[in-house]
Specification:
This protein is α/β, with parallel strands linked by helices. The chain has 22 helices and 23 strands. Strand 1, helix 5 and strand 2 form a beta-alpha-beta unit. The chain starts with a helix and ends in a 22-residue tail after the last strand. Belongs to the glycosyltransferase 47 family. This is Exostosin-1. Its main location: endoplasmic reticulum. Pfam families: Exostosin_GT47, Glyco_transf_64.
Length: about 750
């Protein structure tokens, strides 16, 4: 048997070799004869490329490169599937292959930076309130330009938000209106906002006109149609969503354990037929009437009774028993199933309520997914595994639940609480794509204070910001720069500004002193300034306005800034103690003079008070420490209108800085050591510093409070009753046991 096997194997191998030599020989002979013909033609000058020139033949020849937008004009003999034909005819798919590298002109952004132009509104065109809010947010941002030649990005004034043909907000003839715009350029460098697309019964994602090479900022967009690194997925928000500011999240206390009355809740419409009906029709299988409340109603639409099923009446009865807001505030997890479209209003409602969203919308590209890590704030479920949802969320540990809830609050307040934040987040994402070398990383976007307040133009190193020392394992800065704001001429060696300069220079933590000379008189001679152990730099203010004290001067070499008015009274010991406190709170304002705000019911406006109480919400920058990044943020983040107001009044710059820092940190400032007098009382009444005695000064500050609140959209200041004193301060023990003993003698 073994011998027969060997003979069979040898015979098979021999046959294969014979066939190989036979066919190979034919090709070799053909190749040689072809080469002879080529050589003969070449010698006689008759050489022409032969169509059967020897080269390996493939079943599908490689096609030459053709730009994506010319594919429609190719030879009709090319095979195209029916689905590809439908996609080619649908306007949303014509630029499906667009990416920033292929459909965006970066050269427009290199010259003038990231500037956004909004087309002027055309007469007779209706614009819904939601779209008006979007345009207002752009026009009020630091990116806006009214000059199209300066623009890097263009936004239509034509309302593109609602493209449902059955909607009263639907704009007709949008295709021709868009094409007639002289700057349209096939949509290149354009951004189109859209909340609703398609209509009954299929609710496609077609916006009803050819978007060309424009980017889409779209709600309810699917991963199939989403163009990565080009489109931006935005949340679906209602017409009542606030334009600016917005309410804060509902998580007031970090309760331990973080569990609430209900484990999982949902209350909404149930669709009996059509797209989006499968998931909501199956929710009753999970509902247990105890800690899992999934309530649906068929009672919507004009003809609901004609189509109702056997469960409708029972569902409607139970639906009416529960208050939706009460459920939200008392639930740990909130189900967010898809509706007719992939997105749902329930998504933002759950975020605000600190109710962890359980996503049940297969194929939905989650809002701002390019920068937000939703695994830190939501549970991503699968519609096909609905019955496993309860057991899955019950298995999540309480530590993880608390972390998820905290992240929902951060994301809500950072990116979703207002139309303005949604729009600015969209623009910042696009700006990061354009200027990749200074773009924000995932840590910035997903950690407090968020991407809107961390401007990468300031620095590409996280250690230069006051929010990431712990993440990077860095120690707080060990030195500070004292910046003294001088507005009166130097006429005597006993003036308070010189005493203050000497006291600050003696601090062991002082690296240098900068005197900002905003006086109308010429700079004093160098010998007029006292000799100190640290450098003293005198800068003459170019514009000599109040906001100039917060300019990001290159001379400030330390991260910590000690801001001082020229008539401030501080000892070296007080400076040292305040700085050691600031090192523990580098993201906040830390200082001595405290003020507070209150709501005046009689006038229905915010009030400002300097009364001596245990409650405060501001620490004035006449004697305060903060991070120098706030100089950059004050200069480049705040609008020119607020800074111009400060400069015209020569007042309120310290209030505006407190507004800014509290808006960023969501925390109050920190007052150190009780001190009633921090101003020199012997100042001449002719100096500009005597504005504190001006009766109009206080009224102006009242007005400033309300103007600032209007721009921020809410009151960012936060009250505090915490005051930090040195250990053993005022205690009846030996003075020798106290480190900052001189403070008690003041």
């Amino acid at each position: 048997m073994q011998a027969k096997k060997r003979y069979f194997i040898l015979l098979s191998a021999g046959s294969c070799l014979a066939l190989l030599f036979y066919f190979g020989g034919l090709q070799f002979r053909a190749s040689r004869s072809h080469s002879r013909r080529e050589e003969h033609s070449r010698r006689n000058g008759l050489h022409h490329p032969s169509p059967d020139h020897f080269w390996p033949r493939f079943p599908d020849a490689l096609r030459p490169f053709v730009p994506w937008d010319q594919l429609e004009n190719e030879d009709s003999s090319v095979h195209i599937s029916p689905r590809q034909k439908r996609d080619a005819n649908s306007s949303i798919y014509k630029g499906k292959k667009c990416r920033m590298e292929s459909c965006f002109d970066f050269t427009l952004c290199k010259k003038n930076g990231f500037k956004v132009y909004v087309y002027p509104q055309q007469k007779g065109e209706k614009i819904a309130e939601s779209y008006q809010n979007i345009l207002a947010a752009i026009e009020g941002s630091r990116f806006y330009t009214s000059d199209p030649s300066q623009a890097c990005l263009f936004v239509l004034s034509l309302d593109t938000l609602d493209r449902d043909q059955l909607s009263p907000q639907y704009v007709h003839n949008l295709r021709s209106k868009v094409q007639s715009l002289h700057l349209w350029n096939s949509g290149r460098n354009h951004l189109i906002f859209n909340l609703y697309s398609g209509t009954w019964p299929d609710y496609t994602e077609d916006v009803g006109f050819d978007i060309g090479q424009a980017m889409l900022a779209k709600a309810s967009i699917s991963t199939e149609n989403f163009r990565p690194n080009f489109d931006v997925s935005i949340p679906l928000f209602s017409k009542d969503h606030p334009r600016t500011g917005g309410e804060r999240g509902f998580l007031k206390f970090n309760t331990i354990p973080p569990l609430r009355k209900y484990m999982l809740v949902f209350k909404g419409k149930r669709y009996l037929t059509g797209i989006g009906s499968d998931t909501r029709n199956a929710l009753y299988h999970v509902h247990n009437g105890e800690d899992v409340l999934l309530l649906t109603t068929c009672k919507h639409g004009k003809d609901w009774q004609k189509h109702k099923d056997s469960r409708c009446d029972r569902d409607n009865t139970e639906y009416e028993k529960y208050d939706y807001r009460e459920m939200l505030h008392n639930a740990t997890f909130c189900l967010v199933p898809r509706g007719r479209r992939l997105g749902s209003f329930r998504f933002l409602e759950a975020l605000q309520a600190a109710c962890v969203p359980v996503m049940l919308s297969n194929g939905w590209e989650l809002p701002f997914s390019e920068v937000i890590n939703w695994n830190q704030a939501a549970v991503i479920g699968d519609e096909r595994l609905l019955l496993q949802i309860p057991s899955t969320i019950r298995s999540i540990h309480q530590d993880k639940i608390l972390a998820l809830r905290q992240q929902t609050q951060f994301l809500w307040e950072a990116y979703f609480s207002s139309v303005e934040k949604i729009v600015l987040t969209t623009l910042e994402i696009i700006q990061d794509r354009i200027f990749k070398h200074i773009s924000r990383n995932s840590l910035i976007w997903n950690k407090h204070p968020g991407g809107l307040f961390v401007l990468p133009q300031y620095s590409s190193y996280l250690g230069d910001f006051p929010y990431y020392y712990a993440n990077l394992g860095l120690k707080p800065p060990s030195k500070f720069t004292a910046v003294i704001h001088a507005v009166t001429p130097l006429v005597s060696q006993s003036q308070p500004v010189l005493k203050l300069l000497v006291a600050a220079a003696r601090s062991q933590y002082c690296a240098q002193i900068i005197v900002l000379w905003n006086c109308d008189k010429p700079l004093p001679a160098k010998h007029r300034w006292p000799a100190t152990a640290v450098p003293v730099i005198v800068i003459e203010g170019e514009s000599k306005v109040m906001s100039s004290r917060f300019l990001p001067y290159d001379n400030i070499v330390t991260d910590a800034v000690l801001s001082l008015d020229e008539d401030t009274v501080l000892s070296t010991t007080e400076v040292d103690f305040a700085f050691t406190v600031w090192q523990s709170f580098p993201e906040r304002i830390v200082g001595y003079p405290a003020r507070s705000h209150f709501w005046d019911n009689s006038k229905e406006r915010w009030g400002y008070t300097s009364k001596w109480t245990n409650d405060y919400s501001m620490v004035l920058t006449g004697a305060a420490l903060y991070h120098k990044y706030y100089h950059y943020l004050y200069t480049h983040y705040l609008p020119a209108s607020l800074k111009n107001m400060v400069d015209q009044l020569a007042n309120c710059e310290d209030i505006l800085m407190n507004f800014l820092v509290s808006a960023v940190t969501k925390l109050p400032p920190i007052k150190v050591t009780q001190k009633k007098q921090y101003k020199e009382t012997m100042m001449g009444q002719t100096s500009r510093a005597s504005r504190w005695a001006d009766p109009d000064h206080f009224a102006q500050r009242q007005s400033c409070m309300n103007t600032f609140t209007s721009w921020f959209g809410y009151m960012p200041l936060i009250h505090s009753q915490m005051r930090l004193d040195p250990v053993l301060f005022k205690d009846q023990v030996s003075i020798l046991r106290k480190k900052y003993r001189d403070i008690e003698r003041l």
